[in-house]
Amino acid sequence: MLPSFIADRRVELVAAADPRDEARRRFAADFGGRTCESIEELCADKSVEVVYVATPHQLHARHVAIAAGQRKHVLVEKPMALTLEQCAEMIQSVRRAGVQMVVGHSHSFDAPYRRAREIVASGAVGKPRMISAFNFTDFLYRPRRPEELDTAQGGGAVFSQGAHQIDIVRLLGGGRVKSVRAATGAWDRSRPTEGAYAALLSFEDGLFATAVYSGYAHFDSDEFAGWIGEMGQRKDLAAYGKVRKALARAGSAQREAELKVARNYGGAEYAPAKPSAALHQHFGEVVVSCEHADLRPLPTGVMIYGDGEARLDPLPTPKVSREEVIDELYAAVAQGHKPVHGGDWAMATLEVCLAILKSARDGSEIALKHQTSLPAP
Ligand SMILES: NC(=O)c1ccc[n+]([C@@H]2O[C@H](COP(=O)([O-])OP(=O)(O)OC[C@H]3O[C@@H](n4cnc5c(N)ncnc54)[C@H](O)[C@@H]3O)[C@@H](O)[C@H]2O)c1
Predict the structure, then answer these.
(1) Pocket of ligand 1, candidates 55, 265, 282, 283: which has the most ligand atoms within 8 Å of its Cβ, to mutate?
(2) Ligand 1 mean position to 55 CA, how many Å?
(3) Which residues have CB under 8 Å from 332's CB, separation 6+?
(4) 325 touches ligand 1 (CB under 6 Å)
(5) Longest dimension (CA), the chain
(6) Residue 282 near ligand 1, beta carbon < 6 Å
(7) What's the 109 CA to ligand 1 centre distance in angstroms?
(8) What pLDDT is attached to residue 276?
(9) Fold of the CATH domain 107-320+347-367
(10) Is 354 helix (H, G, I), strand (E, B) or coil?
(11) Is the CB of 185 under 6 A from ligand 1?
(12) Residue 2, pLDDT above cutoff 70
């Protein structure tokens, strides 16, 4: 999110907290802002209006409670938390404080998915009947902290990547999933968490969706996006296999975690992301089958495969990546609008992710109870 914050005039970076000294020093050098060792200290700062919580998954609930306790608005990274109880507490704490909470970034903020939803909601192509989403990546072989390979601590593809893909599917389908049947794969003993899943989601109105993810992949589904990667950038095909090779060189869990820290903000190998991407960000292949057309969100817009013609509904190239997140946050904080990706919405996405894990464990279909509809446009 940092490049988006820097490029957006609505955001001023005034303070930051991180236990890592190198991150604090870099923040002070980059932004001249105040730095703190603890989030408590950061949240006590009167000049801070909004806190962006981008800490490890298992800390989100506690950090949001601290921020809300000091009446700060919150942007909290996905997944919202690890349990539905934590989500309910987070929602309560921001309500009590009278502040806003937006959960993201998730790729359901990306303009092509929002545009596809608008087309569906307009009724122009008839009812949506089926959504097919799949994404093949090398997710599991990127450098990780040990907790990221432990499902109990929010690790694995379902918590990390389901938070994107399920959010997209729910957004396109209107939000209310009735039940989930799923299988997960944990195929690599050296990385003992789920790296893959396949889920069948039944919505309340008869719509159904399949969400398939492999973080073990050698095949890269960005091939279907014209070799435009998740961040909207053109992919370097010569980099094939680079992630696995780098991990093999790391050799141990400790060295791997050090590698991750080195690439983190302030670390020796930190390289700032580019503020603007060539095209829109995306999360793999998605097709929405409607009565009169198939819709396919792409990094360039939405392909509409109708009865008589197939055409691209183009979207202008984004000026700044993830600007959509700041639009929603700003509308919530400055104008009091209810965010699409608020606490109730994100809790419902987590409910689906937890149901994927449970269904895979128990071999059963899981009925859902906390689903929400998209707010009216
Ligand atoms: N939306 C996306 O596309 C996307 C991409 C990557 C990561 N994420 C999310 O960002 C979050 C962080 O993931 P990551 O991979 O960047 O992890 P990371 O380990 O690289 O970074 C976590 C940061 O939190 C800091 N931290 C740890 N404990 C802290 C504490 N008690 N107080 C303050 N700071 C603390 C660490 O020092 C580090 O700077 C996760 O929720 C992850 O899912 C989202």
Answers:
(1) 55
(2) 4
(3) 73, 100, 102, 338, 339, 342
(4) no
(5) 61
(6) no
(7) 19
(8) 67
(9) Dihydrodipicolinate Reductase; domain 2 (3.30.360)
(10) helix
(11) no
(12) yes
Ligand 1 atom nearest residue 104's Cα: 1
pLDDT of residue 127: 96
Compute the distance from residue 295 Cα to the ligand 1 centre, in Å.
Answer: 34
Q: How far apart, in whole angstroms, are the C-alpha atoms of residue 146 and residue 127? A: 44
Name the CATH superfamily for 2-106+325-343. Answer: NAD(P)-binding Rossmann-like Domain (3.40.50.720)
What count of Cα atoms within 13 Å lies in the side-chain half-sphere of residue 161? 30
Q: To which residue do tokens 């991990």 refer? A: 247
State pLDDT tens for residues 101-133.
Answer: 999 999 999 999 999 999 999 999 999 999 999
> 374 near 174, Cβ under 8 Å?
yes
Q: Which residues pair with 286 in a beta bridge?
A: 133
pTM score above 0.70:
yes
Residue spans of the domains in the chain: they are 2-106+325-343, 107-320+347-367
The answer for 246, left when phi > 0, alpha when psi is -120 to 50, beta otherwise, is alpha
Res 165 pLDDT > 70: yes
Same fold, 2-106+325-343 and 107-320+347-367: no
Q: Which atom of ligand 1 is nearest to the CA of 106?
A: 1
The Å distance, Cα 57 to ligand 1 centre, comes to 8
Burial 215-227 (b: 16+ CB within 10 A, else e): bbbeebbbeebee
Q: Which atom of ligand 1 is nearest to the CA of 261?
A: 20
Beta bridge partners of residue 177, listed in sequence order: 203
Q: Is 26 touching ligand 1 by the criterion CB < 6 Å? A: no
- Nearest ligand 1 atom, CA 159: 43
**pLDDT above 90 as % of the chain:** 92
Q: Does the beta carbon of 19 sit less than 6 angstroms from any atom of ligand 1?
A: yes
Per-residue pLDDT tens for 87-104? 999 999 999 999 999 999
As a whole number, mean pLDDT of residues 7-24 equals 96
Report which ligand 1 atom has the smallest distance to the Cα of 57: 41
DSSP H helix total and E strand total for the chain: 12, 14
Mean pLDDT of 138-157: 95
Q: Is the CB of 54 under 6 A from ligand 1?
A: yes
